[in-house]
Amino acid sequence: MSIAQADTASPASSRARTTAGDGTSVSVPVSGRDRVYTADQSSNTVTVIDPSTNKTLGTIALGAQRLGAALSPQYTGNVGVHGLAFSRDSTRLAVVSVTSNTVDIIDTATNKVINETDVGRASHEGTFTADGKQFWVADRGRDTVTVVDAVHGGVVTNIKVGAGPSKVVLSPDGKTAYINHISAPEITAVDVRTHNVSYTIKGLGDTFSSDEAISPDGKELWAAHKRAGMTSVIDLEHRKVAAVLKTGPDTNHPNFADTKNGSFAYLTVGGLDQTLVYRRSPGGTPELVTRIQDTGHAPHGLWPSGDGTRMYVGMEKSDAVDVIDTATNKVIDTVGVGQEPQALVYVPNAASAGSAANLGRQGLGNAPRNVSTLLPDGTAGETMRPDNKGRQLEATVRPVSGLDMIQLQARGFEPTTTYRAFAVQKDGSKIPLLSFTTDSAGNAPQVLGFADFTGVSVAVTSEGKATAQTLARMSAAVASMHPGSDSAVKAADLLYCDCC
C-alpha cells in the first residue's frame, strides 16, 4: 500500500462513455427524457432536474421539513432523506432516509412512491440488484445489509457483513456486492446469489469510510474517508489496496467516467469546495489532473451524464447543483435544489420529455446563508488554511419550519474541549446559541442548533476541557450508535460522525 500526495497537472479533455446504475457502461446523449435527482436531507425531499435545460422541475416530498411536525409522536413521514440509487432499466429510484430508517421505491415516470419498507438501524446507502427486483441497503447502526423486495416492498432477509456497513455497490456483472464500513478499514465482498461473504479486503487508509464507488470496468473501487481526508483505491482484480490518496478535509463521494482520452475518477472534497479529477491507473497510483472550484460550499454527491459530457455535483451547504463541462472541467451552470442535498444520481431515459408529474415545491426557494465566523482568539474562522486543511470554523444558517437551522463545523480546534457559540449582532452584542465538544482530533463535523438567528456572524469561546460526565455521555452515545465497533475506534472520534 502506498501513500500519495496529489499534485496538479494538465486538465482533462472530452469524455465518451460513463457509468450508469451500478457499473454498466453506456453512452446516452443528454435529452429531456433524462433526470437528475438529489436527496435533500433537511427538506426531506427529492429534487427532480431536467438536464436538457438544467431547470428544476420540482420536488417529491417524503416527509415534513426538519423539526416541526417531525417531533410529533404521531408523525409518520420520513426524516433524513439522504441516499439514492436507480435500477439499471431507469424505471425505479430508491431513496434511503437515514433517520426514519426507511427505503422508498419511486416510479421515475410518475414520481410516485410504489412502496416503502422499514429497514435496519441507521440505514445509509444501497444498490439495486442487476434485475431490479431487490434493493440492498447498508445498516450503519448494525452489522447487516438489509435486502428489500423492490417490487412489492418488505424485507427479504438480512445479511451479516461486519460492523458499521456504510454503502453497497454492485459489480458490472451483477454477481458481487461490495460493502465499505464506518467501523472497520476494510471492504466486504458478498456473493449476490448465495448471500455469503466471499472475501474481505483489509488495509484501507482509515477506519471510517463514508462513501464508495466502483469503476465501469469493475477493476477498481474507491472508498472515501471523510474525517481523515483520504481516499483508498482498491484493486479488485488482485483484492488489495493499491494506493491511499491525501484528498482533503471532508472527502465525500467518488465517481467515474471513461473517455476517449482515458479513464477518470471525480471526487468531491467538501472542506475545500472542490471537485478533484484523477486519471486512473489500475493497480497503481492515480494522477491528479485538475481541481475544479465549485460555486458553492461543501460539494457532496456527484454523477456523470449518460454521454459523459457533464458532471453534476450537489453542494449541501448551498442547496444547489453545479453542472461541469467535462471537456473543459469548468462549471457551466448552477441549479437550485432542495435543502441540504446529499446523494445525487443522473438517470438516462427516466421519464417522458417535458413530464413533471406529481411534483411540488417543498424545500425550494429557501437557500441557506453561509455566515462569517470568529475563533476564540478573535481571528476569522472562514479563512481557507493552506496545505488542504480547509476552513477552521464554518457556519451555515437555513430556514426550516419557521426557525433557522444553525449548522457549525469545526476543524483543528483543541481536542475534547467544550466550546460555546454565539450569534454576533450588528451592534457587537452576543446571543448564546449552543455548546459543543470536539472529538479527540479537535473536530466537530456536525453541530446543529435551532433558533431565530438574527446575527451577522458566529463567534465561539472555549469553556475548557470537557468534563468527565460529558465524555461519559459521548462514549455511551457512540456505544448505542455503533454496536460492535472496532476497538480501535474511540468514542470521541465517532460522536460527531455526520451522515456521509
Protein architecture, described:
The chain is mainly beta. 4% of the residues lie in helices and 49% in strands. It contains two helices and 40 strands. The strands form nine sheets. A seven-stranded mixed sheet has the order 38-37-40-32-35-36-39, with no helix packed on it. Strands 3-2-23-24-25-26 form a six-stranded antiparallel sheet, with no helix packed on it. β15 (165-170) and β16 (176-181) form a beta hairpin. The longest helix is centred in the C-terminal third of the chain and has 14 residues, at 468-481. The chain is globular and about 60 Å long. The model is unreliable at 1-24 and 484-499 (pLDDT under 50).
Topology (SSEs and partners):
Layout (H helix, E strand, L loop, with lengths): L2 E3 L11 E4 L3 E3 L8 E6 L4 E6 L4 E7 L19 E6 L5 E6 L4 E6 L4 E7 L4 E6 L5 E6 L4 E6 L5 E6 L4 E6 L5 E6 L4 E6 L5 E6 L8 E4 L5 E6 L4 E6 L4 E7 L4 E9 L2 E8 L4 E6 L7 E7 L5 E6 L5 E6 L4 E6 L4 E7 L4 E7 L21 E6 L9 E2 L4 E2 L1 E8 L2 E8 L6 E8 L5 E8 L6 E8 L5 E9 L2 H14 L9 H4 L6
Parallel strand pairs: 1-22, 32-40
Antiparallel strand pairs: 2-3, 2-23, 4-5, 4-31, 5-6, 7-8, 8-9, 9-10, 11-12, 12-13, 13-14, 15-16, 16-17, 17-18, 19-20, 20-21, 21-22, 23-24, 24-25, 25-26, 27-28, 28-29, 29-30, 32-35, 33-34, 35-36, 36-39, 37-38, 37-40
Percent of residues in beta strands: over 45%
- How many β-strands, per DSSP? 40
Termini separation (Å)? 25 Å
Low-confidence stretches: 1-24, 484-499
Shape: globular
Continuous helix count = 2
Major sheet strand order: 38-37-40-32-35-36-39
Oligomer: single chain
> Considering DSSP H and I runs of 4 or more, what fraction of the residues is helical?
under 10%
Report the mean per-residue pLDDT as an integer: 89
Structural class: mainly beta
What's the alpha carbon Rg, rounded to whole Å?
21 Å
> Major β-sheet, in short?
7 strands, mixed
